[in-house]
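User: Could you write out the 3D structure of this protein bound to zinc ion? I've included everything you need below.
Assistant: Certainly. Input first, then the structure.
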Amino acid sequence: MPPHSDTESARRLRELADVAIQGNLTEVLVRCGKPTCACAQDPSRRHGPSLYFKYRDSEGRSKTLYIPRQYEAEVREAVAAWAELWKAMLERSQINREALAQRVRKKGE
Ligand SMILES: [Zn+2]
């Protein structure tokens, strides 16, 4: 069997789809909001960096989700899975488009 049989590739896509999340993980230095804290005046005394996940909701609005450090690995994995899934779907789209183009050209002859 070839290393990437249809079944194997379908299984991989499903694994990715099960965990994939679209968005970006960013590290941000934050002000805590206490007026007496050093971070209020001095940008170099801001806290963090803290992790935030930025994404768009189903209506296209930008959203931010605070991510505690213990979830960092999981979120990074989810973002990587999304990227791999997207790449795989683009490849599939190209194959499907070429197949369509062939059928359309044949019909035109
Ligand atoms: Zn502070």
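The beta strands are 24-30, 47-56, 62-67.
User: Perfect, thank you.
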